[in-house]
């Protein structure tokens, strides 16, 4: 992946409505420092689930500062934002609740599988091995909706 | 301070930590004690080599308690798989039922070890650490461990046995156990204490009371005791609690000294588990309307032990009532004078006072007749040996200079009697309350002489002497500029001018001139003496004042009960109620059990009354305090064959009923309820 | 166990011994803690080199405490000539006013020394005594002692200062003081803990309401108690425990995450942080009394709702959080607890509380505002919650340092067969199914009334009805006549008899025809000890009267069971349970602990303490409140409060005045009766 941060933000406008609560409303600015010291800004405006992304440098309800390398890892789900905040790798100023809601936009860690698949496969293998047949009415179709 | 758990039965008691273990302590009386000797100084249980930790302690009765324990330090995340219950009783001997519960679903192997040791220390050696002269040996016999102490002919012995098979060695017992899943194992451990007399017999065997009693017998005995006492119904929960606690504690403190099978009140756990003349007399005075059965044996025993000859080591004189009796090694070898010791100047007049008060409640003239000789000897002592200077006051000065008491009144610590500026007076000293007691003893003695001894001339003489004493006293002791009575007179007849709680006793004795009483009452409830929790022993501002000083600033519940009684005698109904209320309040914070003393800090400074370090608890005359306060609140006074009830209860106290009060009238009830006293008329004439 | 003395203020607490001293303890959380980090691990006072001994302790308020001390071991015959008063309080910083009193009639020179040290342990370190990777530096500057701990960008700092001049060295403060005859001397020591955010600012500064001084706190406590309904009753134990509970609940409020809401910390000393489950249950318990607790819980848990699949944190979209922590370990991902999601019951409980909250308060705005979160939670029940795909709610941990059991009984051995074997994973405990049923029933009401989605409501009701039918078939153990504790991965019954069954009554999932048998079990000898309902039947293989979840008695568990018994009309059973719990609280000074031992009552005179149980504990503090609700039979009904008392004779009269709700304020009265309904 060339630029995970850019991909994260560029897909945000499309993913946002599904991911963010209706009550999430406000602006978040991400100040990402490069190795050279230059700072790149991402300006995210959230309103009833709708998301707009730009590079504006404007006053925001919440300002998140970190370095670009760390944000790349956040963008692919390798790092969790609250833990990084607790060890001071990320600074957050302003409306923390807004960021906590925005947290839903970060993806699962790379390689994460749906836990249901893991469990159901395992049970199926065991059933096969023991020749067990689960009563049909015990298995419901289940809602296959899954956000990764 | 570590939390300690005590159980007791008379002068046999066990003090352990909250897990039931006794760790050897040379300076604090933890252990199993009987007759002033420590029979166990170590009693330490381990399971698989680990010490145990307490989950909780059930104090079932004063003579039994139960510990719930787990091995090792409990942690939050790991459940203990074993629990241990120790259920112990004292009643003659010490019995501990040990149960080990396996909570696992498999069989476990458990190594249980009980380490046992005794130093046979005399209680006095613990106050004041000394090397033992005799030798201790441990003998392992068939199915028992014997610990023996011998010094010449003086022998003490502890015998430890277990109902379940054990491996005995010289330092304890080991049990190698296998306990099945969810099963439990039990054994009963028993420690017999032997106080050997000549011929190897336990000298206590002569006393029927000293045979071991079972838990059931003891429970029955306690139930009977409680059933005999008047029943209290009141809106005030703190008062109910402290009354019930007091009855039980008083039951716990009953013990039989050698030479009688009657039961008398011992003074206090753990330091004073023996008979003190003063303490037992005052406890009886306090509890007479409730548990009169204690008084008769107390008077008889003290009469029997009355001094007949002079003895400087024991501060003994003819007619004097004893101060303290002990049975330990140091007393036996005359290193201590307590066989018995006579160093108190107040027990003799108090003896006569109790005798009279006893007759007024019970109508038992036979005892008054029986003790005529002793009572007259006591009255004679007041004028003869009591009046060291020959000027008509009661004085004291010790003759035993090695370990006699410097102050021979109730405030008997060395620095208790001082001038306002802190200097100590010379000897002999005449403290004020002694004069009050002497006055009261003469007045009461006169009544008995007229009523029972048939000697009206003697009665007239006593009354004359009393009147003279009262007149002199009000002249010599009154500190004119402070408007209170001096704490004492010094040898030169000068006033020891500290303001102290002792002046409250004077009201009780009736020696206070009517025109001086209001000032005395004002001082007692003024800011210098009254802390809000009670009357301090010594006024704030005095040179030696110390809010945590034993007799120089702390508040003593028993002292306050006598003061409240005295205030009522002079008609200070509201003031008396205030003291009663403060004491009942304080009792609440000690779980209904008033300690010997608590700190004299201002009430505003402390949310709770502050405990006095190592105060004795329970303490007999603190136990008697709620009883005397109830008497005072209800205004109970025998008049002829009748009981007069004249309640004076503070408004907030609600209703009070005391049912089945025993006395010469049979059983009678008293009722009262709190009401506001009219302002400005707190004093309603002499009661 | 040594006697400990604690003061607390939300998630800040100071735990010392009975003399006020803190000795270093690598494996126990003694000391000053804030935000899961220890800020003082040594705090020892000496006079002339001697340690002090306590005469007494005044617990003034939950945030302040006073010790009366004397030097040396007190002895009977020697009066102490010096006494010391240590008066400490929390409110932003930790303050200790030392007053030394000279009782001599002459002046005296004394050396007073406070030993100070800090290991900056994370609360999890304090549990397991791990080595610390960071570096601690101690410096003395301007008469202040500065202890500073650094690990990468994580910086925690404690600054100790004194109002009177002191000789400060790296290990503490020394005062040489001269006291006149009967004189006294005082100084105020202050310890300020700073947990630095990036840029050196204290992260907590941004939280309004974080720093408060003592008078403000006293005022706030007064307000809090005044807002709650007033209780007058004949039972002193009930009145005590009610008052104690209100105060303990106040003490556990803290400002964290965001300044808009106060959160409820769970229990001293181990759980001084937010737990999803306990804040929801406490919210339920306290709704008729202090509805703001429920509102805050809903608000903050919606913020922290799971957003992605994260195996390390057992997180999934829509799931409600289990636990949050602020300490170093979470920050450095040595533990998942920064936000850990390993609980399967929090999500349905969130929905239940949301509905119950609206029924009491009429606050429809909150229900509308949280529609998205509520729907996500419902979706979680259908998706990730149903791991096996058979319509039940299951759990199985994925996190290496997560919890094996993700119901409220979350210790590793809590879920077992009667013979002691542990079932395979995943597991579906019975009470989870009850919660899921109740959550759907309640959500259907919300969907119909507030979300304007009757079709969704119908679907939820249909699902709930199906679940109830299946549940009563699959979980019911015919020969034992009770519900299985759980289903194992094969769908077999985990056949232990446990208190979980009582929650089923509360949820309403129990068939009417079976309720009688369930109630009989709950108050039968196997579960009911005489002091309460045990977590596990006493004849089971893993039963242990002092087992955390395998025999101990939990007050909050009993409060839910009592409410469940009333729901099914077992008024007498409910009253009996309520009465014994109130009795128990009397033995703990009005303060019910997290749990206590399950020994038979005949065996113990008092309830036996569970080793190191948390106390105060939020949902134990909530217990007397829920019991009151159960005794008075309070239920919101079409905008009104209905009252249907079921009070046993021995409790006498109960009046609860000014109960807040959508009706404004209303009163409830009830009095004990000899005969209560037994169904």
UniProtKB/TrEMBL annotation, chain A:
InterPro entries: SCP2_sterol-bd_dom, SCP2_sterol-bd_dom_sf. Residues 23-106 form the SCP2 domain. It comes from Plantactinospora alkalitolerans. It comes from the Bacteria. SUPFAM superfamilies: SCP-like (SSF55718). This is SCP2 sterol-binding domain-containing protein.
TrEMBL record, chain B:
Residues 8-190 form the Putative glycogen debranching enzyme N-terminal domain. Coiled coil: none annotated. Pfam families: GDE_N_bis, MGH1-like_GH. InterPro entries: 6-hairpin_glycosidase_sf (IPR008928), 6hp_glycosidase-like_sf (IPR012341), GDE_N_bis (IPR032856), MGH1-like_GH (IPR054491). It comes from Plantactinospora alkalitolerans. This is Amylo-alpha-1,6-glucosidase. Residues 430-586 form the Mannosylglycerate hydrolase MGH1-like glycoside hydrolase domain.
């Amino acid at each position: 992946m060339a630029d995970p941060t850019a991909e994260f933000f560029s897909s945000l406008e499309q993913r946002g409505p599904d991911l963010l609560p209706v009550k999430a409303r406000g602006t978040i600015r991400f100040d990402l420092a490069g190795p050279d010291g230059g700072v790149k800004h991402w300006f995210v405006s959230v309103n009833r689930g709708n998301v707009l992304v730009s590079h504006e440098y404007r006053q925001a309800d919440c300002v998140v500062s970190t370095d670009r390398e760390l944000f790349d890892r956040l963008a692919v789900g390798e790092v969790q934002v609250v833990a990084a905040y607790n060890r001071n790798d990320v600074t957050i100023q302003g409306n923390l609740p807004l960021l906590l809601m925005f947290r839903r936009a970060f993806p699962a860690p790379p390689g994460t599988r749906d836990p249901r698949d893991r469990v159901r496969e395992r049970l199926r293998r065991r059933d096969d091995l023991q020749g067990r047949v689960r009563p049909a009415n015990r298995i419901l179709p289940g809602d296959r909706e899954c956000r990764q | 301070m570590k939390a300690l758990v005590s159980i007791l039965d008379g002068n046999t008691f066990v003090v352990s930590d909250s897990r039931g273990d006794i760790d050897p302590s040379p300076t604090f009386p933890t252990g199993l004690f009987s007759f002033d000797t420590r029979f166990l100084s170590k009693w330490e249980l381990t399971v698989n080599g680990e010490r145990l930790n307490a989950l909780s302690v059930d104090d079932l009765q004063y003579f039994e308690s139960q510990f719930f324990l787990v091995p090792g330090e409990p942690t939050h995340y790991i459940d203990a798989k074993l629990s241990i219950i120790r259920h112990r009783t004292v009643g003659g001997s010490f019995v501990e039922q040990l149960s080990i519960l396996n909570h696992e679903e498999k069989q476990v192997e458990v190594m249980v070890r009980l380490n046992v040791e005794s130093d046979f220390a005399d209680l006095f050696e613990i106050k004041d650490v000394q090397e033992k002269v005799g030798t201790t040996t441990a003998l392992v016999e068939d199915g028992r461990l014997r610990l023996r102490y011998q010094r010449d002919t003086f022998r003490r012995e502890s015998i430890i046995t277990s109902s379940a098979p054990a491996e005995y060695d010289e330092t304890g017992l080991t049990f190698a156990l296998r306990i099945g899943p969810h099963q439990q194992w039990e054994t009963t451990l028993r420690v017999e204490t032997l106080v050997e007399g000549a011929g190897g017999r336990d000298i206590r065997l002569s006393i029927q009371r000293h045979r071991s009693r079972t838990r059931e017998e003891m429970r029955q005995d306690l139930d009977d005791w409680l059933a005999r006492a008047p029943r209290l119904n009141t809106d005030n929960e703190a008062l109910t609690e402290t009354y019930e606690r007091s009855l039980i504690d008083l039951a716990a403190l009953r013990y039989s000294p050698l030479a009688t099978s009657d039961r008398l009140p011992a003074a206090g756990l753990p330091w004073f588990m023996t008979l003190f003349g003063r303490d037992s007399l005052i406890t009886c005075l306090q509890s007479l309307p409730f548990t009169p059965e204690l008084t008769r044996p107390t008077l008889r025993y003290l009469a029997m032990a009355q001094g007949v000859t002079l003895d400087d080591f024991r501060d003994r004189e003819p007619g004097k009532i004893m101060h303290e009796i002990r049975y330990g090694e140091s007393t036996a070898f005359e290193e201590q004078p307590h066989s018995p010791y006579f160093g108190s100047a107040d027990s003799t007049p108090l003896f006569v006072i109790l005798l009279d008060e006893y007759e007024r409640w019970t109508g038992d003239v036979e005892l008054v007749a029986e003790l005529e000789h002793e009572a007259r000897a006591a009255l004679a002592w007041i004028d003869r040996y009591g009046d060291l200077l020959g000027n008509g006051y009661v004085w004291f000065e010790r003759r035993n200079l090695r370990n006699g008491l410097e102050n021979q009144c109730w405030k008997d610590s060395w620095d208790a009697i001082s001038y306002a500026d802190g200097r100590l007076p010379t000897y002999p000293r005449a403290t004020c309350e002694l004069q009050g007691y002497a006055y009261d003893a003469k007045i009461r003695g006169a009544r008995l002489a007229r009523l029972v001894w048939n000697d009206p001339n003697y009665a007239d003489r006593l009354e004359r002497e009393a009147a003279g004493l009262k007149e002199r006293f009000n002249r010599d002791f009154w500190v004119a500029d402070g408007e209170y009575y001096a704490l004492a007179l010094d040898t030169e007849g000068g006033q020891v001018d500290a303001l102290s709680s002792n002046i409250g006793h004077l009201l009780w004795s009736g020696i206070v001139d009517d025109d001086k009483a209001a000032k005395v009452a004002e001082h007692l409830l003024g800011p210098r003496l009254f802390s809000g929790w009670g009357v301090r022993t010594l006024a704030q501002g005095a040179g030696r004042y110390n809010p945590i000083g034993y007799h120089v600033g702390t508040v003593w519940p028993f002292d306050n009960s006598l003061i409240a009684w005295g205030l009522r005698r002079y008609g200070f109904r509201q003031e008396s109620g205030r003291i009663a209320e403060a004491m009942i309040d304080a009792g609440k914070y000690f779980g209904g059990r008033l300690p010997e003393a608590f700190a004299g800090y201002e009430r505003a400074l402390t949310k709770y009354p502050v405990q006095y370090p190592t105060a004795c608890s329970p303490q007999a005359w603190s136990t008697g305090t709620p009883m005397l306060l109830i008497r005072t609140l209800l205004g109970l006074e025998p008049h002829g064959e009748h009981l007069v009830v004249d309640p004076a209860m503070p408004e907030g106290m609600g209703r009070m009923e005391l049912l089945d009060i025993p006395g010469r009238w049979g059983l009678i009830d008293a009722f009262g309820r709190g009401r506001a006293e009219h302002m400005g008329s707190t004093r309603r004439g002499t009661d | 166990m040594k006697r400990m003395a604690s003061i607390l203020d939300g998630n800040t607490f100071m735990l010392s011994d009975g003399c006020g001293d803190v000795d270093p303890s690598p494996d126990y959380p003694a000391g000053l803690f804030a935000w899961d980090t220890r800020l003082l691990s040594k705090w020892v006072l000496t006079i002339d080199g001697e340690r002090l001994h306590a005469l007494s302790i005044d617990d003034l308020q939950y945030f302040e405490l006073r010790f009366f001390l004397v030097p040396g071991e007190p002895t009977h015959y020697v009066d102490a000539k010096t006494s010391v008063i240590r008066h400490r309080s929390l409110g932003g910083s930790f303050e200790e006013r030392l007053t030394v009193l000279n009782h001599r009639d002459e002046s005296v020179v004394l050396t007073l020394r406070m030993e100070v040290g800090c290991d900056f342990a994370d609360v999890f370190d304090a549990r397991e005594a791990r080595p610390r990777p960071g570096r601690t530096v101690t410096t003395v500057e301007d008469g202040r002692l500065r202890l500073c701990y650094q690990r990468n960008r994580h910086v925690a700092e404690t600054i100790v200062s004194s109002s009177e001049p002191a000789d400060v060295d790296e290990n503490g403060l020394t005062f040489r003081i001269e006291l006149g005859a009967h004189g006294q001397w005082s100084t105020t020591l202050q310890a300020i803990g700073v947990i630095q955010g990036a840029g050196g600012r204290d992260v907590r500064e941004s939280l309004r309401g974080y720093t408060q001084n003592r008078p403000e706190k006293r005022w706030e406590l007064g307000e809090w108690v005044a807002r709650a309904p007033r209780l007058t009753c004949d039972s002193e134990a009930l009145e005590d425990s009610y008052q104690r509970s209100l105060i303990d609940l106040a003490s556990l409020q803290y400002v964290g995450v965001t300044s808009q809401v106060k959160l409820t910390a769970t229990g001293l000393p181990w759980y001084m942080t937010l737990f999803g489950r306990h804040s929801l249950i406490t919210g339920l318990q306290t709704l008729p009394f202090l509805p703001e607790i429920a509102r805050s819980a809903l608000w903050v848990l919606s913020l922290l709702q799971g957003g992605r699949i994260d195996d390390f944190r057992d997180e999934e979209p829509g799931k409600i959080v289990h636990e949050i922590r602020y300490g170093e370990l979470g920050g450095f991902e040595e533990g998942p607890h920064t936000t850990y999601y390993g609980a399967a019951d929090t999500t349905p409980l969130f929905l239940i509380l949301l509905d119950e909250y609206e029924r009491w308060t009429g606050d429809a705005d909150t229900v509308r505002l949280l529609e998205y979160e509520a729907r996500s939670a419902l979706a979680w029940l259908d998706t990730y919650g149903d791991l096996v795909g058979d319509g039940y709610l299951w759990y199985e941990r994925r996190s290496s340092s997560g919890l094996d059991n993700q119901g409220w009984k979350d210790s590793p051995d809590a879920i077992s067969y009667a013979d002691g074997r542990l079932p395979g994973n995943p597991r579906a405990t019975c009470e989870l199914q009850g919660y899921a049923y109740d959550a759907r029933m309640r959500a259907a009401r919300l969907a119909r009334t507030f979300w304007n989605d009757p079709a969704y409501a119908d679907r939820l009701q249909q699902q709930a009805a199906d679940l109830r039918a299946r549940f009563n078939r699959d979980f019911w153990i015919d020969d034992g006549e009770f519900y299985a504790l759980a289903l194992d991965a094969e769908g077999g019954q985990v056949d232990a008899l446990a208190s979980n069954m009582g929650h089923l009554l509360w949820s309403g999932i129990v068939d009417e025809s079976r309720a009688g048998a369930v109630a009989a079990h709950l108050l039968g000898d196997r579960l009911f000890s005489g002091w309460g309902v045990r977590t596990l039947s006493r004849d089971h293989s893993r039963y242990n009267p002092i087992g955390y979840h395998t025999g101990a008695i939990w007050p909050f568990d009993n409060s839910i069971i009592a409410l469940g018994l009333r729901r099914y009309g077992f008024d007498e059973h409910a009253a009996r349970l309520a009465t014994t719990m109130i009795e128990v609280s009397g033995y703990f000074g009005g303060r019910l602990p997290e749990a206590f031992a399950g020994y038979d009552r005949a065996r113990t005179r008092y309830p036996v303490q569970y080793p190191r149980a948390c106390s105060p504990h939020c949902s134990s503090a909530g217990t007397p409140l829920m019991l009151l609700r159960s005794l008075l039979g309070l239920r919101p009904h079409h905008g009104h409060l209905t009252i249907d008392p079921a009070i046993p004779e021995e409790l006498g009269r109960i009046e609860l005045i000014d109960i807040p709700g959508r009706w404004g304020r209303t009163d409830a009265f009830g009095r004990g009766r000899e005969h209560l309904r037994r169904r």
